[in-house]
Each structure stands twice: as C-alpha cells, then as structure tokens.
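[retry 2/3] Fibrinogen C-terminal domain-containing protein: previous attempt timed out, resubmitting with same input.
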Amino acid sequence: MRIASIPLLFVLSAACAPALCGKEEPPVAQLEPPAETQSHSTTLEDVHLLENGLLQLGQSLREFVQKTKAQINDILQKLNIFNHTYHQLSVLNSEIKQEEEELKKTTTALKITSEEINNLSVEISFKVDSIVLEKGRLQNKVEGLEKKMSSLSQGLMTKEQVAEIDGLRDVINSQEQSILELLKAVSEQSDQINHQRTKIKILEEKVNAKEYSIPPIEAPTLTPYLTSGSTSTAAMMSLPSDCSELFNRGERVSGVYTIRPNGSEPFMAFCDMTYGATVIQRRRDGSVNFDQTWEKYENGFGDFQGEYWLGLRKIYSLATQGNSVLHIQLEFWKQGRCFVKYRFYLNGAGSNYTIHLTHLSGNLPDPMSNHTGMKFSTKDRDNDNLQDSNCAHDYRGGWWFNACGDINLNGRYFYMRRKGRSERRRAIWWKLSRKVSYSLRLTQISVHPVAALSTTSSTSASSETDFLLSSTNIPQ
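[retry 2/3] Fibrinogen C-terminal domain-containing protein: success.
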C-alpha cells in the first residue's frame, strides 16, 4: 500500500513541477480607494459648490446694496427738490399775500377816488338842475315882462317905465351870460371828470397788468479818454489821480472833473465831494437803458448829470492804485436809505474784470460777498457760473453775476416795487435775507482810497448821516 502511494506522489510531483517552475505573476487587480478617501473627495466638492454659492450670493448682495444706495440717493435728491420747491412755494405764498395787501390798499384808494367823483357828479348835477330852474324862472319873468311891455305899448310909456324896461333887459342879458358861463364850467368839469375816469381806468389796467416800467432809452456813450495831444504835458502832470486828491487839494463842489489814475490816459468823471469819491454808477429815474453790450460796459455810457456807468476800463485804472474802497449807497422805495463798504480790487480785461471784495462796514446785509471772484458778464458775453443760462441777458443788465446771485444794480428801472419775484429780479434789487429782496429807487456806487476814511471822517460824518439812514431803518 505504501509502495503504491509512492509512485502516485511522484506522478503528482512531476505534474506540478512544470507549473511551479514556469509560473508567472498573476495580474494585479485594480484596488478600490478606501471609503475615507471617497468621503473626503465628496466633502471637497461640496465645499467648492458652497463656495461658489456664497460668492454668487455675495455678488447678488453687493448688487442689491448698490441698487439700494442708488434708490436711497434718488429719494434724498427728490426730498431735497421737494424741500427746495416747498421753500420756493412758501416764499411765493408770502409774496402773493403781500401783493394782495397792496392791491387791497390800491382798491381802497380807487374806491375813495370813485366816491369823490360820484360826490362831485352829484354836486354838478345839483348845480345844473339849479341853473335849469333859474333859467325857467327867468324865462317866465321875461314872458311876463313881454306881456307887460305889449300892454304898455298900447298906451303912452313914461321915462321911468322905459328906464325900468331897459334895466330889466340888462338884468336878463347878465343872467343869460351867467348861465352860459355856468354851462361852460359844467362842461369843463365834465371833461375833467371824464379825464379822471380815464386815468383811473388806465391805473386799474396797470395794477392788473403790473406794468410800471419806463421804456428803455438808448444809452449814449460817455466822454471817451482825453488824448495827450489835447492837453499840454504840464497840464497832464498836474491832473489829479482821482476825486480824493481833488478833495485833499481843497475842492468841495461835486461835479465833473478830469482825472488821471495811475498814469493812465485822462478821462472825465463825476466827483462826489461829500468825501472825495469817484462815482462809477448812478441810477435814479430810469432815463438810461442799462441792458447794454460788453463794449458799452467796458467804455462807459449814460449822462454824468443823470444815470450812467463809468466804464470797466476806467474803473480798473482806479482800482490799480491800490487800497480802494467800493462804497454802495441804496435807497429803497419804502424802507429808506442804507449803505455798505468793501475793500475792493479789480482784475484787467484779460480776466474779464474779475472783482475781489472784502466787507468793511455798513448797515446792510452782505450778499456781495457771494460775488467776489466773479467775472463781469453782459448779454453778449456770458461769464457767470450758471450753466445753460445767461444771467445778464435774463436780468437785463451787466454785473458780476455768480449763479445768478442776490444783487443786480444794473437791471431795469421800475417805478414802485415790483410784485412778482421774477419781475423783481429783472429790476435793480438787493437781497436783504433768505426770503426778502427789495427793488431800489436810487443807487450810487463810488470808489475812494482807504485813507479817505480817516482823512475825511470829520467832514463826511454829518453828510453821511444826512444821506444815509441809521441801521434801524434797514428793511426787515
């Protein structure tokens, strides 16, 4: 049994040996990643998805915030516009109330005038009736006398009767003459009444139309520069630099003088010898139209004895002397006279005559400080700071406009205070507060050195008091 198994073992060994000797490496199977690695990869993908979602959410939030900011800014802008509109409406409402009060006063005055005219008409009618009655009575008396004369003519009349008849005839003729004179007087009074009614009607139409303006008159050009050839060298050298030098020489009569500031060409100027000031502008009756071109404002226009503008070139030559004071005197229609003074300098033509002001004194509010650093503007040369508009064209006169500012001393001249805000802006006016501005009856702008304030203070104090009211008369 054991011997039989041995061959079997050899057979098995022989069969297995080749397999064992020629055996190759079995193919390596693809291993699956561990469960932890799969979980980690899934977590990273989720993180990336979450990150992208958060970025998109952040971008959406940023866009939402920007849109919200834009909406808030738009709402704030609309609120500002609403507040500005409400303020304008409040100002307009106060002006309408003021206009209503003035119209009520005018209506009351017209009613009183109408009542006086009615009373006069009743009186005239009574007189006419009396005249008619007197005429009828005289006619009856004449008829009686004629009958008496006819009866007397049948008999002999004595001298006394003839004289009586002649006297009666004279009385009748005198009465007829008186009647004719009375009728003539009644006719004249009737014409006067009709004329008054026409004037009242015109006045009512002006009140309704709010028209009190003076028609503009073409402004004459002021006397130009005097040429050196028309004056000797010695006379040129002796000419005063300005009106203050004339004042210091002892001149005290206000009027037109020849001056030569800072060695420039001499020219004529009006000197206010109250304190030796050179007057550069005057408004008082609307006789000169100040809605002029740049050339006119540069060279000057008007009449020294009335209204005029001296000219920017001449004002510049005065300002270049240094230490100049700009003295503005105003008279309102109802609120009296006031003044304000500024330290003053003016650039030349290359800078469009830019003005520089520093407030010194006065009994007026100071809106002119908003105009410092402004260039001069006219209807044909717009240098203001208001885009898409020309203040000089809209306000009918040249000035150092900002946008467009609170002052216009070269606007149209109107009799009486203008009712509408836009109409007042076209007039000569001065803003006294945020809500109140007044048109002006008289203006005068003059220039003098700072030294004149001290050297002439004792002389000019009483005159300043006479011309300008105290600060208690500032319009409120």
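[retry 2/3] Fibrinogen C-terminal domain-containing protein: The mean pLDDT is 78.
[retry 2/3] clearing retry counter.
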